[in-house]
Task: structure prediction
Amino acid sequence: MKKFLNELLTSLVLLASGILLLIYPMESADTACYLAGAICIIIAVIKFILSMKNFTFIFKTIHCILLFSLGITLITFKSIIIGTLPVIVGTFFLIYGSVKLFAAFMVRAFSKTTFIKLFVSALIGIVLAVVIILFHGFANEIIFRLIGVLLIYNAVENIFSAIISKPFSKRKEKDSKDDRIHAEFEDAD
Result:
């Protein structure tokens, strides 16, 4: 149940991010840079303070400095980050689509309908990712909207996947619980 809620929450965050990128592409990208930079700085400060209490000061200091530097970089050089973000996101979704394509071919022997769904889904993701990577320098606003569409597509797909796989995960949990009970009886003998 916890895994289902995590998947659902992640998908809803992706969906909201995709909608914001679709409606307000450049403003969302600026806000995302500021937010990511602020989060990095806050985490670095908290980790630095906690490391002084736990006597792990030397080992965590480098990590804190790197996080703090990343936060400052994200805030200061947001235009450079925004310029390279489409390539990074496109590469991530290209890899994700390739893995999904591999999974489709793995499932092909078991279920033809699942194969077709995974195959089409993977191809759509790969095509969108390639378009983002190839045309990242032309019009950032259009590219960020395309990233928004890709995030919305991925979120909806993950929501349906989580809902469809929920009954199977319940059955798997029940089977593993039955196996533990059976193992306990065998140990008692």
Notes: The chain has a mean pLDDT of 79.
